[in-house]
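REVIEWER CHECKLIST
Item 1: Sequence provided? yes
Item 2: Single chain? yes
Item 3: Sequence as submitted:
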Amino acid sequence: MPIITAPQEFNVEDLYVDLDAVLGCPIYLKCEGFNFAGSVKLKAAAEMVGAAERDGLLAPGSTIVESSSGNLGVALSIIAAAKSHRFLCVTDPRCNPASMRLMRAMGAEVRVVAAQDANGGFLQSRIRYVRDLCASDDRYVWLDQYGNAANWKAHYHGTAPAIARRFPGLEVLFVGAGTTGTLMGCARYFRDRGHPVTIVAVDAVGSVTFGGIPERRMVPGLGTSTRPGLVDESFIDDVVHVPETDTIRTVHRLSARGFLFGGSTGTVVSGAARWLAEKYPGERPVTVAIAPDLGERYLDSIYEASWLREHFGPALADLDLPDTDVQEISVP
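Item 4: Structure as written out by the authors:
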């Protein structure tokens, strides 16, 4: 094991779950949650902060500010603490309480924007707040994960080459679409090297990233209510939209086998399994899907029966949910 002096120096890059043995799907799931941030966002956070430092944007007294639904906020909190920067995360009510507590534990300030935007989400409202904040005081430095090239470059130089080394015969790659940093970095890498890999973007139903109709979304992570500036569809071969009920069913199928993954991973696996069943019925192409996160931060939401009943009701009646989340017993 390595000896490190900063949290961003450690990330498990070569761990895959064989989903054929777990779910009966010919997919190797690349696990990106085994680092101090618990998600793939640690790579983008480190790259964006490093770029801002090299460009001279972070002066003494500066405060990094970013809009995040959770995972990037946690990652930036860790990087900021390690580098002695101030950090302010602008989030919304869908952010997991556990993520907010983690950010504050690292010394970050968290502000919650509760006003929905025109598409029924919060992203435009969060970005508007960030822009107003930066306009009011030049000590605030917005990294802008939605348009920052350092976001996708982190995966162009890290995630994609690691996959290519492990699977030189890769045929299909499934990547979840949030800011699309992971997606665009991987897609550009394989295109630039002439690898004939089919790139499939996995998005949430209700997201507008690829022209979808905006709808209510309760699971934070993938999907947007404002199209990210990083998106270039010329690098993408296909798009799959996954209903949140399918996301939740998938994470529960995985947890029933002992694999506790987050909502973003559930969306990617669900979309990948459906796409393969439709495009390669009965075949076994060499396939990798990227799992952005683990499941601990979702224990109060997609793994909690009362939350699922409140937000999805009979739509998830097929799940074997307990009558109560905790059964109290009396001991004589």
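Item 5: Key structural point noted by reviewer: Residues 149-166 form the longest helix (18 residues).
Item 6: Recommendation: ____
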